Each structure stands twice: as structure tokens, then as C-alpha cells.
Write a sequence for this structure.
């Protein structure tokens, strides 16, 4: 269903990515899928395929340029070396612009590190029409968050020692001061509860509800 492509960033450099195309073809609405800290692995490709099956052109930018890991310490190292403003302002923005060449509207959404980058992109990518954040919060101050105007759907786990319930409350309070029409949901689950490749944290019931809520949100936000 999917293929590896190269797309242009605003600065003229190229970024590799995985593109999954739905039956509706190039005119379908777009969704830029942002990886977890593991890299562009099979699990995130399958997530893009699932979005394509529901009618979205899904593009996953490869921030690590081919590097993939299953080890947490290496993933942490790759994430620590990632230039977040460059990833949001160049790789993600380039992916949105690429999809917008034939898709009228494009959302950005991601998991863990990708959730944090989704919120960052909502501040920095003017072409983005909507965002879906799964358990990720970037280090942004309230003034930055106040700039967000697009609709967002945010999913967080109550048993999360990174995006703690207190941090989620702070994010919610900041978004309330923005112009964003946002929905924020909390689940009695662990961080990364959507990741079916990690049975120790995967919660199928919560994942199903979050997925259904996201598809409903996208239907409204991208039409």
C-alpha cells in the first residue's frame, strides 16, 4: 500500500518519507504521521496504512534519515540529537506542503515524540489545518501555545511519568487561552497505549476509543 518517496523541504533540501495512498487517490485529505522516538519503523508505517484504509493520504517523514531502533537508550539518543524546530519547520512543513499539492486539507498527528512535534507544528506550520496529538508535550511557553488557531484533538494517559496529569492540565489551560477549538481526552492507561507492537503498555480498549474519536474529529476538521 505504501512506498518510500522524497519530498522537498521549504529550504530546498529533501526529506525521505513513507507515503500510503487511499483508494480515493491524490485528491483525498492528507495526514502527516509523526513517528515515536523509535524512528520510521514497521509499526508507524502500519499506522499510515490504517489511515489510508480510512481514506487519508498518509505521509510519515523520516526524521532520522533511515535510522531505526528498538532500544530505549538509543531512541533517547536519536531524539536528543533531533533538532525539533528544524523537524517541525522544515521536515513536517515540507510534508504538509507536499500533500497540499493535491489534498485540499492536511492534518498533522503523532505519538510520544511525534505528539510533542504535532503541538510544535501547530505553532510553526501555517499550512496545517488540524492536529492530533497522542501523549506528547513540547517545551513551549504559554505565549507560543496561545498562537494556535487550528482545531486539535489530544489524547493523554493518566499513568504517564513523562506527560504527567499535571503537565496535561497546564497544556489544557494554555490551549484554553488560544483560538484553537480543541478536544482533550484522558485515559486510564499507560504512555504509548496506542502502540500495538508494545504489549506491555498497549491498551486495546483505550486505543480503539482514541482512534474512533480521532477519525470523527478528522472528518469534521478536514472537510
Amino acid at each position: 500500500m505504501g512506498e518510500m518517496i522524497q519530498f522537498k523541504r521549504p529550504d530546498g533540501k529533501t526529506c525521505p518519507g513513507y507515503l500510503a495512498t487511499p483508494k480515493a487517490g491524490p485528491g483525498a485529505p492528507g495526514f502527516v504521521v509523526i513517528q515515536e522516538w523509535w524512528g520510521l519503523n514497521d509499526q508507524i508505517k502500519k499506522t499510515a496504512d490504517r489511515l489510508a484504509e480510512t481514506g487519508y493520504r498518509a505521509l510519515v517523514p523520516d526524521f532520522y534519515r533511515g535510522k531505526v531502533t528498538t532500544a530505549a537508550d538509543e531512541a533517547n539518543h536519536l531524539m536528543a540529537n533531533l533538532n525539533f524546530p528544524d523537524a517541525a519547520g522544515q521536515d513536517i512543513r515540507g510534508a504538509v506542503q507536499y500533500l497540499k499539492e493535491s489534498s485540499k486539507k492536511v492534518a498533522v498527528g503523532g505519538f510520544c515524540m511525534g505528539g510533542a512535534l504535532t503541538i510544535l507544528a501547530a505553532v510553526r506550520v501555517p499550512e496545517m489545518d488540524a492536529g492530533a496529538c497522542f501523549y506528547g508535550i513540547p517545551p513551549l511557553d504559554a505565549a507560543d501555545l496561545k498562537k494556535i488557531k487550528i482545531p486539535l484533538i489530544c489524547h493523554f494517559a493518566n499513568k504517564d511519568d513523562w506527560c504527567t496529569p499535571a503537565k496535561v492540565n497546564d497544556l489544557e489551560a494554555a490551549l484554553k487561552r488560544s483560538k484553537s477549538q480543541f478536544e482533550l481526552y484522558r485515559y486510564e492507561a499507560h504512555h504509548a497505549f496506542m502502540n500495538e507492537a508494545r504489549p506491555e503498555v498497549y491498551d486495546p480498549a483505550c486505543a480503539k476509543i482514541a482512534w474512533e474519536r480521532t477519525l470523527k474529529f478528522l472528518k469534521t476538521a478536514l472537510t
Remarks:
- The radius of gyration is 16 Å.
- Helices lie at 42-53, 72-80, 84-100, 113-124, 142-145, 165-176, 204-221.
